Amino acid sequence: MIPAAFTYYRPRTVPDALSLLGAHSEEARAIAGGHSLIPMMKLRLATPDHLVDLGAIAALKGIRAEGGAWVLGATTTQAELIAHAGLARALPILRETALQIADPQVRARGTVGGNVVNGDPGNDMPAVMLCLDAALEVAGRGGARTIRAREFYRGAFITALAAGEIVTAIRIPAPPAKAGAAYVKLKRKTGDYATAAAAAMLSLEGGRIATCAIALTNVAPTALLAEAAAAGLIGAAPGAAAFAAAAAAAEAITDPAADGHGPVDYRRRMAGVMVRRALAAAAERAGG
Amino acid sequence: MAKTAISLTVNGEKVEALVEPRTLLIHFLREQLSLTGAHIGCETSHCGACTVDMDGQSVKSCTVFAVQADGADLRTIEGLAAPDGTLHALQNAFREWHGLQCGFCTPGMIMRAWRLLQENPHPSEAEIRFGIAGNLCRCTGYQNIVHAISAAAATIAGASKEAAE
Predict the structure, then answer these.
(1) Which of A44, A70, A97, A105 has the fewest Cβ atoms nearer than 10 Å?
(2) Given an 8 Å threshold on Cβ–Cβ distance, is A104 in contact with B131?
């Protein structure tokens, strides 16, 4: 398993990376942690002629608070995210999710940006970013723009990112007051993609659900925002009956593939089970 | 294909080499440096047999290009024993606790355990199992590997306590 030959670049700045990607547009790929791209290159399912390594660009690294929001540099590794105490206090769902991705060695290299941007329906961070209403900061030769995660995913491995653009950071808004969130994943073994997984965040006011967002992993060609499921919970008292109704509404929008993870009906039902568990954990964390 | 010059530290020694950009780190270590301790198992980032330490982290060297290790500080299983051949506490513990059978996973398993014990010098059994989740062993059922890592942690803690006294 030896990749096809390519020319390697290790730019130090975002403009340099963009010029390299622009100069070789169709034949170039950006690489971050490489734990999706390198396996594809070894199988020769990806054969870029030019590989632009984003790993040496300091501006793409780091985690910082900006007001109530958090900004994650695109090449922040899962290990760096897990180790960040401030982020773990403010948005514990991110650490909870990262710990369920692959294994320690993969988390040492794999990046949050790569997980979000690759468009693989099996990746875990996209659903979390849908749930938290994150925004992706994008740089291209034509300038910078922001794309909401909720408008980013178009199909399996198809995103709103244009050729020659890179995501530089992910901005996560402050969660509502008295919110709790959880990411619950069913997988067959360590390192596996989810059979089904769900992210949920809700906030409570006077014992009732005031805000709610739910998103699903790996039960459709993209991560899914379960809008009707979440909307149905507004004003409800948190509990098994309300969560079962939300789970049913979430199951209804799934379109899972039958594969090694199980048949369609099973994966659909597991999506519902993950929604119920994620909602229950989120409600408990919200103080309900 | 044009080769790229890289310069790195491997087991404490400076290494300069020319590599094709597509050369994977595991192939560079095994074929150019003749460090055959790290093994090629699955070649798909799952099994962990190729685990080495790179800049203070365990990585799967089948999923890193050698050019990406330019400037890095690497340690492989060959760099664990003392220069006089005295085995590291982990190597001793794997032998004493029968933490291996065929031995294929052992270099990767020990290198991962070596980094784990620096991240967490006193891991619980659950923490050890979570910490070595990226290393597969098809022989032992892991039980004795976990025992060995626990025993090595105790030995290392005892040795550092002795040194402090």
Answers:
(1) A44
(2) yes
